[in-house]
Structures are given as structure tokens and as C-alpha cells.
Protein 1
Amino acid sequence: MTIELHKEKSTGAVRSVTLGATKEQGGSRSRTLTIGGETALPFLDFEGSLPNRPALALEIRDRKPADWSPLLYEAWGEAMNDPADWARAAEAAGADLIYLVLSATQSDDSPNSPEKARAVVRKVLEATGLPLAVAGPGQAELDNELIVPVAEEAKGERLLLGICEDKNYRTIVAAALANDHLVQSKTPMDVNLSKQLVILIHDMGLPLERIVMDPTTGALGYGIEYGYSVMERLRLAALQGDSMTQQPMLVNPGEEAWKVKESKVGEGVPEAWGDWSRRALNWEAMTAAALVHSGADLLVLRHPESLRRVRAVIDDLVAA
Amino acid sequence: MPLSGLEIYKLLPQTNCKECGYPTCLAFAMKLAAKQAELKACPYVTDESKAKLEAASAPPIRLVELAGEDGKIAVGNETVLYRHEKTFYHRPGLFLRVRDTEPAEALTKKVAQADGFQVDYVGIDLGLDGFAVEAASGDPATFAGAIQTVRGASKKPLILLVSTPELAKAGIEACAGTRPLLHAATADNAAGMAEVAKAAGAPLAVRADSLDGLAELTQIVSQAGVEDIVLDPMLQLYRDSLHTLTQLRRLALRKNLRSIGYPILTFPGAVNGADEPLMAAEHIAKYAGFIVIEQFDPATLYPLLVLRQNIYTDPQKPIQVQPGVYEINAPDGKAPVLVTTNFSITYFSVANEVEGSGWPAWLVVADAEGMSVLTAWAAGKFDAERIAKAVKGFGVPEKVGHQRVIIPGAVAVLSGELEEELPGWEIMVGPREAVDIGSFLKAMWPNGK
Ligand code: B12
Ligand code: SF4
């Protein structure tokens, strides 16, 4: 008796998207990062090809954040005081991409400024050869005010610029168009909204090879199941040939997992939650490990140890 | 895989005698296909057809139940590959491995501690499902003794990890009154194991490192009369796990391959190089039925149990709490009034914080159709009108001697409209995150604790 393996052939493929540009390509990165390109569900290479493994980014900030978990301060230490040091530390920790988030305010609590944003991005580009993503603080007006000069400053670097949302994408897309960058298209856990925003951005003239789709996720225990299933549905649709779902997917388990009480707080929590540090690291790594199986192509993390653990899992998942 | 009306018709006598109450055999077949009639209404159907029809209506993945002295767990009977297609039904059982070579005292302590482990997630008590006792000594008496020790500390279901029929028999005898899983029948001992399992009416796991090997074994043991079977595919690391588990689920559902249509048992921490928490997470997301873990660590178990809960939540029905007004820490007329939504995760994040802060409070839970604060707000299910209706409808004005209500910081924009809906009330905008409620009340609530 021989059981024949059940293979499901797909008719569509995820687009390949390349972040970062080397000197020859008009940038200054020492390497580029390509994600997407799959013609099969995650890691099922017996029925299709998965040319690029899921990539792992580490999030850094332009200034030391005020409200992160103490465990993250412990992990990064002094490096957090300087974005260049932090970027170097993230590269040393094994990141494929640096995900730089600009803050709303400067360290003296005055509003962040275009000059400051330019300077920080320049500094980070000089500190690391990795491709770079830059996201604004998440307030529409300020995002635009900061991302436009950043896009100009790093012209040709093929940065991933964020974050485009349905209410605020035009300025960021225009900046990406004018300066040869890519964009992160983020929508709240809905297949149709994901497609719509990709269409709107594409309609402005940005090639699909420069759009990364962020379907939004929740942390373990705080809505991961919604994000997980939306990603599975998007990926199945992509493989069935639905063109506007064929962008590679970025998710941010780091931000989500470190927001929740289980990772943030060590005291005054139920004893059954167990050791704080192990629990917190499991929270981030497990959220990421689950999302890898629902089709994530690029995951943004915060703790270097989570990156190491998730990397080991991916290494085995892609080993032929 | 269910048969169509025509396929069923071919198995009926085709005499149109009408005794089933339908004008023709075909009409009866159509009703059977729609599950609106029962086969026994036809007195003439042959035994052979009956067997075929029953087999076709059996679930593609068999439901297997274990029972302890107290507590049961059933796994299997899954019908989809992706949870959005319907839902995943039977959460995989999480079992902790213990060995009969551990000294009785240490064993008792370990089992009692793990047995008592319980953690609350959105009002649901989560814990381990049982223990997998390994006959590592190879000695039947030692093994039976260890089982007694385990049973002295826990009434949960057991899995017996045994390599020979003799050990299986000793284990089964020590498990009287319960229904453990026997693990495992292999190519070397299948007949003997099946005999023990059959005599005891216990489910039996078969262990092989290939799909063919598993299918051969399930055939041997089912022919020997064991119906409740579990598969142990001897998984290697993440990649092998994913491929094997996916194939097994697909072949059962898409090909209706009966010989592997059983729940699957895995040992995520037993493979060299495995990161047990992450491997177990993969097995939860991708199709395991029983998961035996090596380490008892609440810091791992809690997130794993939450992940299992999340993956096995019905995507059509968010977990909700009953709308109403909830009393926290015995509030009186001076106590603060807070409003939130009836999404379980939201309600419990807020209720737990308020309770932990020691503040007595009235927590008004509006009917937001089970959505989080911002989701409900964006969907128009948590607006000023609904909040006002909840405050008034649940009789809050009669319970308190003040007119102040605190809304979530995330929906600060609602305060103007809410003032109009609740004339005379002061609308206070609370913090964005529930963790900050205690310090907010301390700073802002005029009446004190
Ligand atoms: C999971 C999720 C969903 C799930 C729904 C889950 C559910 N049952 O509610 C799904 C996928 C269905 C969904 C749908 C939509 N969503 Co949605 N969703 C989320 C997500 C990822 C997490 C929400 C969550 O569960 N949070 C956890 C709970 C515990 O948070 P919470 O309820 O806010 O409670 C906290 C605080 O508010 C506070 N709190 C709560 N009550 C109280 C009370 C008081 C007095 C105080 C002081 C504090 C307090 O304590 C809690 C813990 O700190 C968020 C983004 C994010 N990461 O936050 C988007 C988000 C809420 N969704 C959004 C949107 C727009 C939608 C949709 C309209 C989009 C669409 N797909 O069409 C729909 C609407 C639903 C519909 N039409 O049916 C937006 C809202 C944007 C906005 N600011 O208006 C968000 C913010 C995403 C985004 N950035 O765009 N969503
Ligand atoms: S009782 Fe049986 S044989 Fe008679 S009509 Fe019904 S199905 Fe046909």
C-alpha cells in the first residue's frame, strides 16, 4: 500500500518585493531583502515554490521610548539612547531589516521635526548596511510632515515607508514615488479593506512590486485569531490568482505582544502566569511563530531573543 | 464524505414499495442525503448497503475520548483545514510526561502541582488535560505503582506510554475505572497491543514514521477490533511536523482516507533541537489532537493554553459577556461608574484591573455585539446612544447618588454627544489602557475610595 501525497496546485503567486538598494542600484545598502514570490502555502514546498524565507525585522526608535516593558530596556540597554547604536545592535542580533519608528516628540518633549527626522535616518543609514523601514509616529499630519523629508533624504535607498492607512496614504505614496521607495499598506483585519487600499495606492502609480501589505494582527490572547484567519484567507486568495491580494504580508507581533499586560507587567499578576521574563518572551515568540504559519513574509519584533528563537524555527521550516 | 442522493439511491432496493413513507426509493434517498430521514425507515435495505451508508456518514476524523476518574477529553472529528471555513471543534489535549522511574515522592509533588495549575483567561479556567505516564523502568509492577501514585495526586485522564503488551496490561489494570490512551502499537507489537486495548475497551495509539506505516498499523489494530485509534507519526522538527500533519489532515478530509482518519498525538519537546513552546504552538495551529509536553512551566503553559483557546474559537462568534451592570468590590452609591463593551477580552481586561485596584465600582457593559471598544466604535455599535441606553436601561441612576460616568479613553470623541444623551451627567474621559484605571481613579474621582 502506498499513500499518495495530496498536492494542491495554485494558479497564482505572491509578488516578489525587494527592499533596500545597493550602491549599484542607486542606494547605499550592503545587501537587499526580497520577500514574497510564493506559489504555495507557507513552507509547503512539495507543491510549489517558496523562493524567499520569511524575514525578521527589529524595531528601533529615534529616541528611547518612555513606555516599553522593562524587559526590553534590559535587553537593549545603553544602545537605546542612540538610534545608530541601536541599529548596530539590531543588526548584530541578526535582523534582516531595521524597522525605525519616529516618535511624536523629541527628548526635550518638543514636537519632532523634519530636520531631526532627516538626521536620524541619515545616521541610521550610516550605522547599518541593512535595508531600512521608516514609520511615522502614527498621527496623520505629523506622519506626513516627517516621512516626506525622510523620503527625500534617503532618495534611492528603497526604504519601506509607513504607514499608509485608508485615511492617510496619498502623501506617503507620493513621497515613495518621487524618491524610489516602497510603502507599507495597513488595514484593520479585513480581506476587502486590504485589497482596496492596495488598489488605491497602485492607482496613484506606485508599482505593485513596491507595496507591502500589512493586514494587522493582534497579540496572543488579544485578537490573534482574527489576524491569523484574515492572513490565511488573503494568502489562499493570492494563490488562487486574486491579483490585489498578492502582496507580501508584513505583521508586527512585536508591537502587539509587548503592549499586553502579560509581557509588560511583572508584579501584581496572577501567580499562574509564571516567570515574567520567560512568559513575556514566549508571548512575542509564540505570536510570531503562529503568524509565520498564516503567511507572514516579514515580521517586526522587539526582543533580540525572540528573533533568535523564531529564526531557528524558520531555518528548519525552510531547510530542504 | 457524505454521499449524494443518487449515490444513496443506488444502495436502496429500488422497488418503490413506499413503506418508508415516501413515494419512491429516490425520494427517500434525497431525504436521507439532506439528513431529514433515517435509514431504519426502510425495512428492506441490505446489510451490505447499510454498512456502506454508515461508513459514509462517519466523520472523516474519528472522535476519540479519554476519561479520568474525574474529567474527560475528546479530540478529533474536525471537518476543515482552515478555521475560517467553519471552525475547529475539539481543542487538542495538553498532557505532561512523567516517568515511572521518578521517586514516588517527587512524582506526587510534580503531578499535584501540575494538576492544580489553573489560569483564568477571559473568564475561562484553563489547565492541563492530563498526564502521560511512561513505563521507563520496563517493569510492570513499578509502572503500576507509578500509575497509582499519579492517580493519588490527579484524577485527570492518562496516556500510558508503554513498549510491550505486558506493560500495557499492567498499566490498564492500574487504571481501573478510567479510560486511558495506550501508546503505542508499532510494527513489532501491534497484535499484542491491540489485544490488550480491545479487552480493556481502551483507545490505542499506533506509532510509525511514515504514512504508509501508520495506515498499515491502523488496519491491523482495527481488524483486531479496536475502533478508537490515535496516530503517532513520530514527528521530527518543525518542517517535518508541518508537512506530515498537513498531509494527514488533508488526506482525511479531502480524500476521505479512512485508514488515517484519526486524531494525532505529538511530542513537541522530545525531538533534539526543538524549542518546545514554539513547536507546541505549531502543533496547536496545525492539527494535533494530543500534545505531550516535557516541561511543566506556567510561563509556557499559559500562552500555549491561550493560543489553543484562540485558534479553537468559532470565528463566527466572538466570546462575549452578558451586557448589564457588574458590581466590583461591593460598590455603593458613591462608587465610580465605568462603561465598556461586552467583548470578553475587553470586559475582563477592565474588570480585572478595577478589581485589582481595590476600587469599588459599577461596570456598565453595553451591548456592542461582542466587539472591542474601537472595533465597536468604528462599526457604530458603541456610540453615545448605546452607552446612554445601557446606563439608563440597567438602572444605574437608581444605584448611585451621583451623575458621573467614565468612558474609555479610546473613545474620548464620544463625550460631547454623550452629554446630550445623558443630560445633567458629567462625562469623564478615562485612560486609554485599562492598566491605568487605578491611578486615574485615585487622581480624578472626587468621592475617594
Ligand atoms: C481584533 C480587531 C478586530 C476584530 C474584532 C474583534 C472584536 N470582537 O472586537 C475584527 C477583525 C472583526 C475587526 C473588525 C473591524 N475593525 Co478592528 N481591530 C481589531 C484590533 C486588531 C484589536 C482590537 C482588540 O481586540 N483590542 C483588545 C481590547 C481588549 O481592547 P479594547 O476593547 O480597546 O479595550 C482596552 C482599552 O480600550 C481599555 N478599556 C476598555 N474599556 C474601558 C473602559 C474604561 C472606562 C476605560 C477607562 C478603559 C477601557 O482597556 C482595554 C485594555 O487596555 C484593533 C487594532 C489594535 N491592535 O488595537 C482593530 C481596530 C479596533 N479595528 C478597526 C476597524 C476600523 C475595524 C472595522 C470597522 C474595519 C472593517 N474590517 O470593516 C471592523 C468593524 C467591525 C464590523 N464592521 O463588524 C480600527 C478602529 C479605527 C478607529 N480608531 O476608529 C482599529 C483600531 C484598527 C486600526 N488601527 O485601524 N477588528
Ligand atoms: S421502504 Fe425502502 S424499498 Fe420501500 S420505497 Fe422506501 S426506500 Fe424504497
Note: Chain A touches chain B through 52 residues (CB under 8 Å).
Protein 2
Amino acid sequence: MHRTGELSGQYRTLEQQRETASLGMWVFLATEVLFFGGLFMTYTLNRSTYPDVFSAASKTITLWLGAVNTVVLIASSLTMALSVWASQVGKKKLLTIFLISTLILGCVFLGIKGIEYHDKYVEHHIPGWNFNFEPGADVATNAHAQLFFSLYFGMTGLHALHMIIGAGLLIWLIKESLRGRFTPEYNTPVEIIGLYWHFVDIVWIFLFPLLYLIDRH
Amino acid sequence: MICTALTVTAAEVDLNQYFSGLNIIVALTIAVFKAACVVLFFMHAKYSPGRTQLVIIASVFWLAVMLFMTMSDYLTRRWI
């Protein structure tokens, strides 16, 4: 079923509507940059204040799980970019396939993240009453390690929340693409959600080296 | 993906022996390169209208202002 009249009254052409939507999304992403930027700054400050504990705490997260997740997420960005391309050239079946692959890769990422969180739970590395960085750690080390893990859970948790929202948006896109709504003339939702998905990928591109890779050698 | 392999390998090597902080510089340079590739090609920033590019540049600029102003305070406090 093809819906006619995707053009809202205030626009002259679909092209103008698309460019306006894209610009609006970029403005939203600019606020997101500063939102995550504040967290990155907090992390950098605390890391420069307690370099030794942060380095020791960073070494306890599993490197290969993070590296695999980076590859998974970049692959999902690629399939998302391919979705946008498929919608622009009007390949409706390919669009659905690429959207579903993106959703699956996103879920794989969240699954691996869940395994990592479970590991932290088993190791008593979740900040709170049961936190114990390592046997015999003194009060100061425990406190500063909690700071690292609070930031770790705060930042990766917010990132995961963005992923979950993105997955919800993808499910809606898949539903609409199955109805055949997206055509070469009208594919703005695919493009806009694509921008959001790539942004979430970029956040992880910075989270990975900062949280996992400091002082690995 | 090639960059991910590169960045993990680079992190395993002790680059800090050459001068302190080189490891993190290498890791962040690779991250910036990856992010730039995503923005330019996956997000089509390269082919966007000028006003969209202005928003992108402005967001990076504000971030830089925030990081620079804050860090130039905290990192120089012990100089006194």
C-alpha cells in the first residue's frame, strides 16, 4: 500500500521537507554530542586525577568482548547505510533485509553488553554495597575504582539505552518498509533514523578506546 | 573494522616508552579517524547542504570549547 500525500502543508517540495528533517536531526545530534561530551569530560578529569586506579580498573574489563562489540556495531552501521541506499534506489526487499540485519546486529551488541554486565556482577564490580575491587584493596582504592565503574556503567548504560531506543525505531521502520511505504521519493524516516544509529555508533567508537584500551600493554 | 584491529594492537604495545601518553594519543587519533569516516560517508555529511555541515562543525566546536576550557582549568591548578 502506497500512501500518497507524504508532503506536509508547510513545504513546497518533498526535497525541501527532507532537507529540513535532516537538518533538524543534526541539531538534535548536536545536543547529544554535548550530552555525551559532558560525560566524556567527567571521565577524563577523574582519570587524570586517579590515573593508577583507573588504569587498574580498566584492565579488569574484558578486552575481546569490547573489540567484538565494536566490530558488530560498525557492521550494523554499514547495514544501516545500505538500508538508506536501498530506500533511495527503491529496492524495497533489500531495504527490509538490511533493516532486519541492522536490528539483529544491534541485538547482538546488547547481548554481549549483557554478558559483560553479568561478569561485573559476579566480580563485585558494580558500584554499591557489595563493591569490592580486589581482595585486600584499601578504602581509597575501592572508592576510586567505584568512580571508574560508576562512569563505566553510566556511559555504557546510557549508550545501551540509546541502542534500545534505536532498536524500537528500527522495528517501526521494518513494519513500515514491509507495508512498502518507502519509495525513492519518500524515505526520510529511514535517513533520519540512520543518522541517529550512526551517531550511537560514533559514541561507542570513543567509549571503546577510553574505557577498554587505556594502559593495556 | 581494520581500524578496530589496529587500535587494539596499538593498545597492546607499550608506546608510552617513547613518550608518556603516546598510547592514548594513538587510540584517540584512530577513534577520530573512524568517527570522521562514519560522519562523512555513512551519514552523507560530505554530500549535505552547507547549513547541515555548519551544524556538524558547530557541535564539534562547542564540544572542543567545553573540553578546552574545563581541562585548562583543572590541569593547570597544580602549577600554582
Note: Chain A touches chain B through 43 residues (CB under 8 Å).
